[in-house]
Specification:
three-stranded mixed beta sheet, binds zinc ion, 50% helix, globular, mainly alpha, two-stranded antiparallel ribbon
């Protein structure tokens, strides 16, 4: 298998080059960006939605989205068949052909799964990860994180100067916002909420919630075995003592609800 221990924030990608096969995720990051305190800027829901859409479009344009007939996309379509929305938020799924192991879901319901994550997860596990990420959207964690990124970086000078009209963003600002969509770090309580909400989402859509537990176990084992500083693991398990608790809690819930743990299938 290709080496996948790439930590996204160390990457400096060139926006102008054509994306080769198996490329690294393209996030242009401002080197000297300094976090600033979020200002009390009025941002309407419509403006927020426009910024989210612009950022997702930027990510899709600057990363290698696999075509519909590609086996990865075919697999993802099959896996998510019949899942069209999350509590009314319309969902859309795409695969990025990149070497980073990651997946993220955006406030507008765009879900992006990286091919290298698909390489190591079987179907139940992959669906578990997707459920967890959608859990963050359903609990509005993703929206809060995006809003913070928007106000502390891209719009740090405020939107008032533009008379309340959503300010146009530069390419590097959109790259920064893309990075915030991919790498949003959530608190442990938010992770727990996403676990529960993701569990409910999986059950509601007829999927086996054990998939989430198994995915967590796999990521945890991978990290222990290889010591890999994988961006997704760092995002998912920001605090180690909590990881075991989360796995245990979700296992107990699935057992109590009478779900049978699927047999471990070989990864793709
Ligand atoms: Zn999470």
């Amino acid at each position: 298998m290709r080496k996948f221990s790439v930590y996204i924030f160390t990457l400096v990608c060139c926006l102008a080059t054509a994306m080769p096969v198996g490329a690294q995720l393209n996030l242009k990051k401002l080197g000297n960006a300094v976090a600033k305190t979020a200002q009390a800027v009025t941002l309407t829901d419509a403006q927020m939605a426009a910024y989210v859409k612009e950022s997702v479009d930027w990510m899709d344009k600057n990363n290698p989205v696999l075509p519909e007939d590609n086996p990865y996309t075919v697999r993802l379509r099959k896996l998510t068949e019949g899942i069209t929305d999350a509590d009314g938020i319309p969902l859309n799924f795409k695969v990025y052909h990149v070497i980073d192991i990651n997946a993220f879901a955006c406030p507008d319901g765009s879900v992006r799964v990286f091919s290298s994550l698909m390489d190591i997860m079987d179907d139940d596990e992959l669906m578990g990860i997707i459920g967890h990420e959608i859990g963050h959207v359903l609990k509005h964690h993703s929206k809060k994180a995006f809003r913070t990124a928007l106000l502390t970086d891209a719009l740090k000078d405020g939107v008032s100067s533009t008379g309340g009209v959503a300010a146009a963003l530069s390419d590097s600002q959109l790259g920064d916002l893309g990075a915030s969509l991919v790498n949003s770090k959530f608190s442990q309580s938010q992770e727990k909420e996403a676990d529960d909400c993701g569990y409910d989402f999986l059950v509601k859509n007829g999927r086996n919630p054990w998939g989430m537990v198994m995915a967590f176990e796999k990521l945890s084992q991978l990290e222990q075995k290889s010591g890999a500083k994988m961006s997704y693991i760092q995002k998912m398990f920001s605090s180690h003592p909590e990881t075991k608790d989360r796995i245990k809690r979700m296992s107990q819930r699935a057992t109590k609800d009478g779900y049978q743990r699927p047999e471990v299938k070989a990864a793709e």
